[in-house]
């Protein structure tokens, strides 16, 4: 399903983000930038050593990536030229600033993408796996953040994909699309 936000195209796709044919793939990473399971493991396996080495370098230089922020590395063997690693919040019940931190992940990733002249970007559903954020809530936060970013920052037109792994997550994002737009 597609949605226009001004000149920017938002697409909802069910599938494997490592196969996305976009300029940059977003990774749901951890603050240490040390490979985990979930989408992080899948992206690192598909991308190979170049991603590992770039993450190690950021760890040495900056100590990692705080929750709600984002860093960029090359895409290694992926079709994508870059990977943006962002760190979502761990769900703690909803009153520990989780929504603000999750919105920040999407906005900081888009900021980095735009600053690097990227034309197309694919997001997974950040925080809704190992970090336990309820998917229906996360989907509304994610799409609201993207909408606000595109409208407020008057960016050049880009393609923004959400690549959702399983059917239940895909359905949540389609429902959220109707709520948010
Ligand atoms: N493509 C798209 N989405 C995927 C893929 C894939 N190949 N593999 C998993 N996912 C989905 C999951 O189904 C889930 O909906 O990504 C979403 C996010 O789940 P996680 O990867 O568990 O991410 P998160 O909840 O943010 O937890 C981050 O997990 O892997 C570790 O290092 C990572 O510690 C960090 C934590």
Write the layout of secondary structure elements.
Blueprint lengths: L1 E4 L2 E7 L9 E6 L8 H10 L1 H14 L7 E5 L7 E6 L10 H18 L4 E4 L11 H18 L6 E6 L2 H14 L1
Helix pairs in contact: 3-4, 4-5
This protein binds adenosine-5-diphosphoribose.
Adenosine-5-diphosphoribose binds next to strand 3 and helix 1.
Which sheet architecture does the biggest sheet show? 7 strands, mixed
* Cα end-to-end separation: 13 Å
Order of helices and strands: EEEHHEEHEHEH
Helix content: 40-55%
Small-molecule components bound:
adenosine-5-diphosphoribose
Report the count of strand segments: 7
**Unreliable stretches covering 5 or more consecutive residues:** none
Shape: globular
- State mean pLDDT (0 to 100 scale): 96
Major beta sheet, strand line-up? 1-2-7-6-3-5-4
Query: Strand percentage, roughly?
Result: 15-25%
Features:
181 residues, binds adenosine-5-diphosphoribose, 7 strands, alpha/beta, 5 helices
Give an overview of the whole structure:
By secondary structure, the chain is an alpha/beta fold. 41% of the residues lie in helices and 21% in strands. It contains five helices and seven strands; from the N terminus they run βββααββαβαβα. The longest helix has 18 residues, at 98-115. The protein is globular, with a radius of gyration of 15 Å. The two termini are 13 Å apart. Residues 16-18, 28-30, 36-42, 88, 124-131, 163, 165-166, 169 line the site of adenosine-5-diphosphoribose.
